[in-house]
Amino acid sequence: MAYTRKTKRVFGRQRDQKKALMKSLARSLVLHEKIKTTEAKAKSLRPFIEKIVTRSASASLSNIRNLNSVFGNDKKIVQKLTSEIGPKYKDRKGGYTRIIKLTPIGSRTEAIIEFV
Questions:
Q1: Which of 23, 28, 56, 101 satisfies CB 3.0 to 4.6 Å to 81 for a cystine?
Q2: Contact in structure between 72 and 79 (CB atoms under 8 Å)
Q3: pLDDT tens for residues 62-113?
Q4: Which of 61, 46, 60, 56 minimizes the C-alpha distance to 112?
Q5: Residue 87: inside a domain
Q6: CATH number at residue 57
């Protein structure tokens, strides 16, 4: 029985740097509700932000504490998630973001990721 390793995008970074990148992109997306980045980063950000929005749909104490741990006690972001973004998607079962591809620049393709 052969085991296949799960592959994720690395972005030429170590694990902690990649986690910091995802948190930074998620923070920008929550604040601005639309960001422009590379297509690969947008595709990696999508599952990360979907889980966060699902948690923010119900503003229970444990969910708020979890969001605080993800964003390093940034009250502005947690407040926006629990008061604006979470209730907006409360009845939706997922698919909170949309990725729009832009023109390729060299070997990279830019994309816009935004909330639906």
A1: 56
A2: no
A3: 999 999 999 998 999 999 999 999 999 999 999 999 999 998 888 899 999 9
A4: 46
A5: yes
A6: 3.90.1030.10
